Amino acid sequence: MARAGGSLSRKGLRGREVELEELQALIASVARTGSGGLALIQGEPGIGKSTLLAEAVSGARAAGFSVGVGKADELHHIVPLSSLAACVLHGDQPLLSGDAFADLARNQDQRIWLVERLAEAIEARAGSVPVLIGLDDVQWADPLSRFALKQLPARLRTSPVLWLLTARREPAGPAEEVVAAAIGNLPTVTVPLGPLSGTAIDQLVGDTLGAAVDEQVRDLLEGAGGNPFLAVEMLAGLRTAGASDEVVPSGELVPPGLVVGVRGRLRSLLPGTLRFLQMGAVLGRSFGFHDAAALCGRPAATLIEALEEAVRAGLLDDDGDHLAFRHDLLRQAVYVDIPPSARKALHREAARHLVSAGHQPIDAVPHILRGALLGDEEAVALLQRAADDVLSVTPGLAADLMTRALELVPPALPLRFTVGERTILSLTRAGRNREALSAGDRLLAGRPPLEVFSRLQAALGGALWNMDLSGELRRRTETALAMGGAAPEIGARLAALHALALSRDHDLVAAREAGEAALRAATAAGDREAHILALSGLGEIAQNAGENAVALGRFAALSAIDSAFLPEEIVAHLHMDDFEAGERLLSQAADHAGAMRQAMMLWAQGLHDLGLGRLDDAEADFMTMEHLEDEVQIPAQQVNARVICSRIALLRGDREAAREHLVAARERLAAKPNPGNTAAVRFLEAVHAEADGDIGLAVDRIRQVQQQGAFMRWRLLRDWVDSAIRMALRGADHELAEDLAAQAEAHARRNAAVPTATGIAAQALGLVKNDLAMLERSAELLKASPRPLVRAAAYADLGQALLAAGRKREAVAALTHARGTFAESGAHAAAACVQHALEGAGAGSPGTAAKQRPVRPVHGWGALTASEKKVARLVAAGHTNRSAADLLVVSPHTVNTHLTSVFHKLSINSRVQLANLVMTLPDS
Predict the structure, then answer these.
(1) Treating both helix axes as pointing N-terminal to C-terminal, what angle do 377-390 and 340-356 enclose, rounded to 10 degrees?
(2) How far apart are CA 604 and CA 617, in angstroms?
(3) Percent of the chain surpassing pLDDT 70
(4) Is 846 helix (H, G, I), strand (E, B) or coil?
(5) Dist CA 483 CA 444 (whole Å)
């Protein structure tokens, strides 16, 4: 690749030849291979990061890249997506229009959805031309941009997208987090910039002064420590006004030599220009001309001369829309000369002006954080408005803003309780449940009035539920309800939370009565939140009681009020064996993904695929779900997902993968040890113990499940009760087996219209009583079940019983049916077990099971699952993740999971390589 931008010896690039060549090599690699890459340029302020980034960007643009470059700003590091805005909105061909980007930032309440939409826009552009996205000063990136930067490079690793970032050195800072997320997924380079050599500094001196330097200047330049920007500014100051011995204010992280140099340059400016620059420094590195004029207290027209002088002096750049200090260090050097007390007052005035001028509250927040004092109610109100605006996309930021607002309210003011309530809700939304509980308890310690006490307890309900503290939630809601004094809507919420807490108790009849009363109270109060809580509690109660039709009614009503609860409705349909309705709703959700809880939608999709015997797809769904939950740091179903994945691995015969999932399930159980998760892991341990031949341990683990509550109470285990009964019978614990069968029978009575429930109950009774007729009835009932693995297990039990009864021909037919159904789903270990039974009956030659069990290779096209092959062919044909997902009616995140596996198994790194490989396949 040709060097772009001219000779390396020109001013600004002294001594950076090696670093630039490293970046040029990465640029060439991305263009050549069609795969992604990331480079982080690190160093102290003024060391030349921005200059090197600009030179690399220039080279990439000359090489045909579509380029988008932005810069994070210290004073605007809060506004959601502000840092990435310039990267995608500017350039020769912006990746997004301004309106489309504003819609993303303003209207969507899903961070994951938003990042996926950004990825789709970048991916679409990269389909025709390599893309470079550069962001300067990542250490100041806003939280939502940082979240996106941690996801996007890995998400787009198979496309020719190069990420060039610069940042100051900060251990465990934002830039390091971005790099850590990318390592292992795409080529990642860190380019550290150290001090320039003495020779390079001498060349810079010649570039600046145009002549040799004397010893006095050399002594001064030693204070620059090899920092090129600092050296140039010191020289410029000398050239303007001579050296200075002025004192620099202490406590400021600005190099003293820089202040000396800048002061030398500022002496030659008009007083009005200096004041104009100071007001600009308060507003930030980038600021509006009218905003600075307002802080100066003068009409904009009277400051044109000051603006022109600042630009001529090389202190400001003017792009027609905004003014910007030429370097952050210049702004800081001007800013440090403003007395601290004046700075604080100016920031407060800046916040007031920005809001009155029509800016969004979040734009004024950086100034509020620097200028507000205790008791500043105007600042508190502004922080609350800003928190409301960003809660949907950056709940963590909203929680921080509300926490700061609460700190500004004196303890004696009633306002403290109102702000405190909203702080609790924001912290809960951000997943910071312990902080929410701590904040609430501090407020409650202030002995608030009864009405306020009730509001605070209601606000704490979400945090207590998320922390699995149902007992504490019950105690608090009962206390608040008994004390009285609550407003009708708050009383309804407390009643609904109380019913939700009771859903975890053993007396579900009392829980149902409480839920019905809460629903009536919510309806009477006309409170939407109370209505949602009551329906959610009643749905949980019905599902825990095994009343599937009732649960479906509750969750259908709930999702009609709030579509975020569509996953619960889908799962309720699956419990009714109505997979057609589940699939219809999943398709509907795919068309409106921005409004859904995407991780929970993947949980519903995974249960749908598992129920239909699509083991490969189910595993991909659950692992994608876990990844998304990790991204937003709100784990919900990770324990159950790992339990299912471990069982899938055992069904396939992959014992090593099964053990890995078991270990992961135990780790996640330690973080979320509620009774349902505990029961699921104990059952999985029983399954592993049985596979290892330790039937005593297996039976002990089933008993432990019973101690957590009746086995059939745990929704995940209901389709697996036959396995538990076989373990009990093998362990000669007939009493346990009978208890399990009785639970299955009671569950069938509650769900007489659900073929899976009635069929499993008959199967359970047939196993316990060794009743052939009952096993035949089970197989007949399960013909109406949409769950192939459940049918296969029943046919396998029937076949064994028929063999024992001497009815060999019928036995072989049943066993053959079971084996084929297991094999078709990819449950090859289960199919092999049935084949052994067939061989024992003389229906197959010895060793047939091993021969018939396909061994999927680890690498190559043959290693791909059917779904992975579909995705691979679509992507090779030019489809994006989104268009492939639309055709397959799955989530783009699931497509990404499949694609990751495809690239790993095929040992390739780009879509171009995939297309070339698919072209060589015989059936392409």
Answers:
(1) 60
(2) 12
(3) 89
(4) coil
(5) 14
